[in-house]
Amino acid sequence: MFGKIKVVLILLLAQAVSGKTEQPQMTFLTNLIQRIHKEKPIQTLLMLQHHQDKDCSIQDWNPDGIPILRVNELIEIDLRMHFNHMSAALVCLEEPSHMSLLLDALAKSFDHLRYVRIILWTQGNPAEEFLKQISDKAEEHKFLRMIVLGLHQSVETMHRLKPFPSPRFERIETVSFIKESVFARPTLNFQGKTATLLKNLNIPFTIKNAPTVDFPITQIEDMQIIEFALKYNLTLSRAQKMDSNVPDPYVDIELNPHFVSKSDLLQRVESVNAFTLSSLMVVVPCGKERSIAKVYRKLDLRTWLLYILSVYATFVVAETVIMVATHRISGRSYRLTNLNPCVNMRAFRAILGLPFPIGPRLTVSLRLLFLAMILFGMIFSTFFSCKLSSLLTKLPLQPQVESFEQLRTSGLTVIGLSTIQSFIENEIDEEFTRRYLSNVKYLDPLKYADALIAGNTSLAFIVVRDSWKGFERFQQIIGRKIFCESKNLSIIQNLPKMYKMQKGSIYKWHLTKFFMTFFESGIPSYWKSTFHYNIRERLNVTIPRNLKPDFVPLSLHHLKWLGWVLGCGYGLATVVFLVEVYMGNRKRKVESKVPAPPGSSEIDAV
Q1: What digits encode the pLDDT tens for the residues 13-37?
Q2: Which range is the signal sequence, renumbered to this chain (predicted)?
């Protein structure tokens, strides 16, 4: 009996000693968690351990006032989706070999949340090689806030992650008296960290950037990346990749911002900058004033000439028939010359609305015919003069395309950038593209820019609205407004343009805040206002300024066509005169050979 009591006392004493040795560790962890919670509230604490670690020293630890989720690496849980983002992680590392597997599971649970607070609880003092392995894993998953706690013979050690320029751990000497924040605060100094950028290899020219950074860029928007690197001490390096459509895990930022697809918009909504909202639209040739020659073509002079000739022939035939019938009825002889139908001055004067003399002996039928000719001439000349005067007073504009239906029927070839071809084919309604954008030809950026500057009015172009503003300024500088915007030719509106970055990129949040501040300053707007200088310099083109004013007064050179009309009239009159001389000589020869019968009267038809 005494032996049993002795055994019980020994067990109670061992438990008491064990409690005293474990209590300081739990107290230290509790105090540390409470301090972290005080700096920034922890609303969810994820406690992760390996499924084979049955004897983790903290598996039964419960802090006051903080909800805990206890999981192992086999349990999949999305904290970012189902729990508050103000969370932290406590990872129990009993075996160093479990480190990689547990950190992979942790990254998956937090969906690569960069600023999650992570505490690694290890037994013993972690070796430098083990810390190096942890830092490599932190760089892989882009963890920025991590501490490693080591417990060895009731002595606590703490190592804090320094993420920049490359992840490494520094030891905190006075663990119990930490004066600064437990975790390193999110820094705005990358301390020379290297960021790999992928430039657009389809554009063979570059835009000059800051002289202190030797990095070529291809678009005005990319200058923001240069300014970001200068401000936050970031080193830029270029990646050489031939296929820019295939994601590269080693590229941090792909230059040339692109439209975000609707499927990706919900996932990237936190990084959307309202200043980067843009639209995709079609610009078409502007409506322009018609020249004098086009005005005459608008009058359709050929149709008018056919009307005049038909009316002239009708008048001549009617007058001839009436005169022949009158002479037949009166019993008088008559004779018509060959030139009478060709040159009937009364018919010409009537058609032109001019007065013409009539003889006192004309019959009533001829007078009625001349009255009809006068009425027709008055109406015809008045209508033609009004139409011509209205066209010459204000030259009408050739209307520009205002809708997709007009674009489809206009026959214009639509030119688009090859870089947005996949976006249009995947994001725009297939029925819409088949109906209205079937005549689209995609070109690489250089050929696209050449075609746009060439000013071919048989083409329309798919442009991004913010890029169009720069080209519109370019048209104002050179004084040639060739392409114009129409309100009803927008393909897609108010969609954000963003840079392609890796999932969970450490630069995403900093870039978003920087871009917002940068756009508010108005600097990007100034850059876009100088866009035309870069176009002229990089494409090596010389475009003469159009110094011709929009409105010019009439001068003598506008009336040159009258000289041609007068010359043609004089030439035609000369030809007719020569024909009349020839016909008169021939008539006299005939009359001299054939004497007229006595008592006959000869009447010439006028």
Answers
A1: 444 444 444 467 788 888 888 888 8
A2: 1-19
Regions of the chain where pLDDT drops below 70: 1-23, 84-85, 112-113, 153-154, 175-179, 186-187, 200-216, 218, 240-249, 266-267, 270, 289-296, 332-342, 392, 394-398, 530-556, 558, 594-606
**Is the peptide bond between 249 and the residue preceding it cis, with omega within 30 degrees of 0?**
no
Angle at 465 between CA 461 and CA 467, to 5 degrees: 80
Beta bridge partners of 259: 497
DSSP string across 179-247 = -S-SSPPPPS--TTEEEEEE--TT----B---TTS---BSSGGGHHHHHHHHHTTEEEEEE--S-TTS-
| DSSP states of 263-318 | HHHTTTGGG--GGGEEEEEEEEEPP-BPPHHHHHHHHTHHHHHHHHHHHHHHHHHH
Q: Burial, 46: exposed, middle or buried (Cβ in 10 Å; 0-12, 13-18, 19+)?
A: buried
Q: Mean pLDDT, the chain, as a whole number? A: 78
| Partner residues linked to 500 by β-bridges | 254
Partnered with residue 441 across adjacent β-strands are 415
Q: Coil, helix or strand for 110?
A: coil
Burial of 390 (0-12, 13-18, 19+ CB in 10 A): exposed
pLDDT of residue 602: 45
The token pair that represents 96 in the structure block:
């160093």
**Are the beta carbons of 471 and 452 closer than 8 angstroms?**
yes
123-125-130-136 Cα dihedral, nearest 10 degrees: 90
Q: Which two tokens stand for residue 513?
A: 């805040």
Of 484, 517, 511, give the one whose Cα is nearest residue 498. 511
* Cα–Cα distance measured from residue 202 to residue 284, given in angstroms and rounded to the nearest whole number: 25
User: What are φ and ψ of residue 110, in 5° steps?
Assistant: -90, 5
Q: How far apart are CA 374 and CA 346, in angstroms?
A: 10
Please answer whether residues 464 and 279 qualify as being in contact, where contact means their C-beta atoms are separated by less than 8 angstroms.
yes
SS (H, E, C) 387-407: HHHHHHHCCCECCCCCCHHHH
Q: How far apart are CA 510 and CA 231, in angstroms?
A: 11
Token pair of 413, please?
Answer: 């070839």
CB atoms < 10 A from the CB of 104, how many? 14
Provide CB contacts within 8 A for 498, sequence distance 6+. Answer: 257, 258, 260, 268, 271, 272, 273, 276
Among 64, 127, 134, 144, smallest CA distance to 99 is for 134
In 479-559, where does DSSP find H-type helix?
508-521, 523-529, 531-539
Letter string b/e over residues 62-94, b meaning 16 or more CB atoms within 10 A of that residue's CB: ebeebeebebebeeebebeeebeeebbbbbbbb
Between CA 237 and CA 309 the distance in angstroms is 80
